[in-house]
Amino acid sequence: MKKIAIVTGASSGLGKDFVRQLDRKYELDEIWMIARRKEKMKKLAHSLKNSKGVVIGADLSRREEINKVINKLNDEKPRVLFLVNSAGFGKIGSFIELGLDEQLDMIDLNIKALTAMTYNVLPYMSKGSKIIQIASSAAFLPQPGFNIYSATKAYVFHFSKALGIELKNKGIGVLAVCPGPVKTEFFKVASSKGKPLDWKSKFMVQSKDVVAQALKDSEQNKMESVYGVTMKLFKIVSRIIPHRMILKMFKWN
Question: Could you list the residue ranges forming a coiled coil in this record (predicted)?
Answer without folding.
Answer: none
